[in-house]
Amino acid sequence: MAGYCTAVDKINDAGGVLGQPLRVVIEDSGARVPSALDAAKKLVTVDKVPVVIGEYSSGITIPVGTYLVQEGLVHLNIGSSSGRVREIGEGSFSLLGLDNVSSAFAAQDMFDQGYRRIAVITPNNAFGQGVATEFKKALTDLGGEVVAEVLYTEGQTSYRRELQQMQRTQPDAYFYSAYGKDAATINREAYELGLNQSQWYAGYLSMCTSDSERTYVEGQIGYDLNFVGENGQAYEQAYQDAYGESFVTSFSGYAYDATKLAAAAIEKAGSADPAAIRNALTELGTAGYEGATGNITFDADRQRSKQPYLKQKIEGGKAVNR
After folding, report:
1. Looking only at Cα atoms, what is the longest distance across the chain?
2. pLDDT tens, position by position, 190-239
3. Which one of 57, 66, 107, 120 has the minimum C-beta count within 10 Å?
4. How far apart are CA 177 and CA 199, in angstroms?
5. CA distance 261 to 300
6. pLDDT digit string, tens, across residues 51-106
7. Regarding beta strands 173-176 and 117-123, do their DSSP bridges make them parallel or antiparallel, or are they unpaired?
8. In the 3-class helix/strand/coil scheme, how is 141-165 assigned residue by residue?
9. Whole-model pTM above 0.70?
């Protein structure tokens, strides 16, 4: 919520949108497709919003975005990277690069550090399937090899069997991407099994490690979204002033940019009509919008065409640039 709130404060301090205060209605997806769709339906039928921002899981974003586009609304994706997001429809825009962009970055980064035989573990959902497929393709093209590929079922109490399956292949390093409690379980059990003696590389480092005990993730490396671009210092300072701390997750900057971009599109359209906003977003994204996360330029499918990433490492329990 922090990214939204900071953006709303800035917009309203400058006079709002079309002369009116901007209000963001926040609904909880419950991390489940049925509850996410119920929340989206409320936003459409009760709140009658023209633009919906979210979600943070491709398996939820895709059905929610599809519903919103079918209802004629504008959908802004700020936290899902499955390649299937591209297929949602004309009213859907992505403010971050999809998994073909991120996985290629990760494969190149690991290859450059000398890792050739890599074991992969990701969730068995739209996001994880896309990441595993694109990472394997990129690594193979570079001359490396994925020696184990595990798509795990979310919500398990243990992943020892999956981790031991990977361990038996004796990889040079492990590549993974996981959410919250699942990531915490994987990191704890990998540590207990001694898998951390080999390098662990995280796709979206903050997402993979934020819920884990620092002992279990110390020394992990990976990439994360570059949440402060050339013009992002004012946002970073406003965030720190408001919350008294640095960013908890890199995704907050994308919520900020989505809110600001939606407001700019409404102003440009001179209307809250979704069709007019969609056209204005296309124009803004084609020209290139300077956001807190950097330049946002959409490709022909309305997806962010360039995505800056940070190379990071967990050091002293915190993510630092390497």
Report:
1. 63
2. 999 999 999 999 999 999 999 999 999 999 999 998 777 777 778 877 77
3. 66
4. 14
5. 18
6. 999 888 888 999 999 999 999 999 999 989 888 999 999 999 999 889 888 999 99
7. parallel
8. HHCCEEEEEEEECCCCCCCHHHHHH
9. yes
